[in-house]
Write a structure and sequence with these properties.
This is MarR family transcriptional regulator. InterPro entries: HTH_MarR-typ, MarR/SlyA-like, WH-like_DNA-bd_sf, WH_DNA-bd_sf. It holds the Pfam family MarR_2. Helix content is 66%, strand content 11%. It contains six helices and two strands. Strands 1-2 form a two-stranded antiparallel sheet. The mean pLDDT is 92. A hairpin with a 2-residue loop joins strand 1 and strand 2. It has a single domain, classed as Winged helix-like DNA-binding domain superfamily/Winged helix DNA-binding domain (Arc Repressor Mutant, subunit A), CATH 1.10.10.10.
Length: 138
């Protein structure tokens, strides 16, 4: 049996879309748009807007708007970078950490609902396979 990479890609994208759609109400209750959530969730790994844009495959101008919104909402703060005083780095405020963690918990619960449809062994295999595809250690 042949497996079509493009079909797998589309199925994965569709699954992620369905999970995100199911979480929209909770994100809205947290005061977040979907893409704002993605930016919020990326701040700790990528504290500079250009890094966020690269990591999330978003235009820099869009990330600038999302960051501005998150700062206005009190979820993200700008700090002067001690290594380069000309730059500002982004950090999550306490409210930002709380919002991010609640949103991630909502996404995890919805994704877990989907994972419950497959066997425990299939979940273990899926984790292993995804890790291999990302070149992550098990």
């Amino acid at each position: 049996m042949s497996v079509d990479g493009a079909r797998l890609w589309k199925l994965n994208q569709r699954l992620l879309g369905v999970v995100m759609d199911a979480c929209t109400a909770e994100l809205t209750a947290l005061g977040l748009e979907t893409k704002e959530f993605f930016v919020l969730a990326e701040v700790e790994n990528s504290p500079y807007p250009a890094q966020i844009a690269s990591a999330l495959l978003l235009p820099r101008a869009s990330v600038t708007v999302y960051v501005r919104n998150l700062v206005t909402k009190g979820l993200v703060e700008r700090e002067i970078d001690e290594a380069d005083l000309r730059r500002h780095r982004l950090v999550l405020s306490d409210a930002g950490v709380t919002a991010r963690d609640r949103a991630l918990a909502t996404l995890a619960a919805e994704y877990d609902r989907r994972l419950a449809r497959i066997t425990e062994q299939d979940r273990v295999d899926l984790q292993r396979i995804l890790g291999q595809m990302l070149d992550l250690p098990e």
